Each structure stands twice: as structure tokens, then as C-alpha cells.
Pyruvate dehydrogenase (Acetyl-transferring) E1 component subunit alpha (Leucobacter tardus), 357 residues
Amino acid sequence: MLPRSAPVTLIDAEGSPHADDQYRMPDADRLSAAYAALVAGRRINDQCNALVRQGRLAVYPSSNGQEACQVAAALALGDGDWLFPTYRDSVAIITRGVTASGALVLLRGDWHSGYDPHEFRVAPQATPLATQLLHAVGFAHAAKLRGEDTVVLAMCGDGATSEGDFHEAMNFAAVFRLPVVFFVQNNEFAISVPLSRQTAAPSLAHKAIGYGMPGQRVDGNDVAALLAVLDEAVDRARSGDGPSLIEAHTYRMLAHTNADDDTRYRERDAVEAWADRDPIVRVRAYLREQGRLDDALETEVAEASEQVAGELRAAMNADADLDPEQLFSHVFAERPAQLDAQWAHLHDELDRTEAAS
Ligand SMILES: Cc1ncc(C[n+]2csc(CCOP(=O)(O)OP(=O)(O)O)c2C)c(N)n1
Ligand SMILES: [Mg+2]
């Protein structure tokens, strides 16, 4: 049950294969698909970072540098399985098949999810930390009671592991042997709080033992290792052996969101050191070495990513059709006097705007 002392790695930072006696290298077709998704994921992250500066997205918690975790989480699941993502997991949602513009509707500021969770088997992105873990566990419990073979993969960050909801979710899932994979992206920060101020445990994966489930640590910038480790946890869940906790060691390359200034709490050198461990560079080097990737295919992958980014730009640059009255919908069954006054104020303003135009 104990996690390894060092994270599982199958492709090292130079792109060379790293032998492991427990985990096998995923086949080249799967890694090629992962590479294409990684390149698209990076392009989407960069596009969203630009859109937020242009005022077209309200906020963007990017996964720059964490794309291997995003891609592997989506690719490790079968079609009928469910993903429970956080605010930082837009790329995982898109890799699962949701259109980029649909996935970004929430972060644009809309009050509804931009996709049908049942169509893609992806829950809406959760912003209150660790709440999605409880939803995931409840969902898995229901699936088990119904005799379905659904596996649920629930994502969270290192900071979220300090929440009470994390504890409740882990304990319930283990006691009832539920088909859940808890997937922690340890990017070393919870906004400005470093991991050293978050936990005194030897690793986040070690927390699994106390609940009675296996924990494993994996290099979060190695998509091959992530796929192999997540595959094993998904198989275990599906075969009725219960939940697992996987901790991916990665790094948040940008600030928490556009609203954060990370120069106030971390050194540039630390960030730059992680640039050498970029998740795209190493799988690209490996696939090239294997003769599975050449200039033509790289161009094809880059062009496909440009197309996704272009479609996203076009969708986000179109003004949303907003109804200001929705601000008042479903808040109170009977509107109190204070909101009545605000309602009247809004209508007065709308009438005057209309009269002036
Ligand atoms: C219950 C709750 N408390 C506090 C917050 C404010 N908050 C938003 S993100 C964040 C940090 C989370 O860090 P981590 O879990 O490591 O995820 P990351 O952002 O690094 O992906 C905090 C404290 C919140 N969203 N929900
Ligand atoms: Mg974090």
C-alpha cells in the first residue's frame, strides 16, 4: 500500500525510457494521441491566458506545465466513466471531448455549465475546494448500488487535501470499496501557500494508508508514467478492489490565476528549473527517437491545435447574449424589499439606456 519513495517515471526529462519493474510503457499509438492532446492543451492554455487579458474570460486558472496530468486523467478513463474536475482542469475536460468554447463558458462568467455533464460524463468544474470529491464518491456509490461498472476519477490540488471534505471522501470511498481514483495534482502551491506549509506527511500519497487504500506517487510531467499508474488504479476500481490515491508531482508554471502576482512569494529560479522538465518536450523526444514522430506530423498536430485555438477565440470574442434580469432569478422564492429596490434601480437604468440609444 505504501507509495514509492520516488515518483514513478517511464520517460525521463531527456526523453529516454526509464525501466520500471511494475509499470509498463504505454504503446506508441497511445503516446502519439497523448502528444497531440498535450500540444492542443498547451495551445488552449496560452489562448486562455491571452483571452483573460483581453477581458474575454473573467478568470483563467491555467494548467501550463500540468498538461500531462490533464491529458492522462482524460485518456485513462473509458467512455462510460466519469470525471470530476476542478477550476484548473479545463484541458482535461476538453481532452475528454467537450468543445473548448463549451468548457470555458463557466470561466467566462456564465452561471451555467457550458456543456451537458451527462453527454460527456464530466461533472461541472468545482471551485469550492474538495467538494467535487464528495460528489464523486456519492456518484460512485450510486453506480455501485446500481450494479454499473462505472469508474469515477476525481481531481484535486495539493491544497485541497487539507480540507475536511477530502478526509470524508477518502474514508467513505475506502470503507465502501468504491470505484474511485483520487488524483491529486501536487503543483507545490495553493495560491501563495507552499506545500511545506500544507502538510507534514512524507508525501500526499502517504495519506492513503490511513484510510486503507493504496497510494502512489508519479512524475506529473511524464505522460507515459501517468497513464500507466492511472490505468492500474482505474483497473483496480473497475474490478471491485476499491479506491486509490495517486499523487502527481508537477508544478504550476504561472501565477494561480490572472488575479495573482506570484513574484511576491516565489523565486524565478525555481520556476525556471521546472521549465527543463516540460511535459511536452520529453514525450516529443521519446516519440521522435522511436521513429513515431517527424516534422510532418508535428506540423499537422500544431495546425490542429491552431484550429482549436481559433475556434475558441471566435466563440469568446462574440458578445454573450446576457439578460440582466437573470441576476434576480432563483435567489429567493419571494423577493425581499431590498432586492425589489435593486430590481427597480436596474429597470430604471435599462429604460434610460434604451431611451438614449
Ligand atoms: C473551500 C474553499 N476554501 C478556499 C477557497 C479559495 N481558494 C481557491 S483556489 C485555492 C488554492 C487551492 O490550491 P490547490 O488545492 O493546491 O489547487 P491549485 O489551485 O494549485 O490547482 C484556495 C485556497 C476555495 N475556493 N474553496
Ligand atoms: Mg496546488
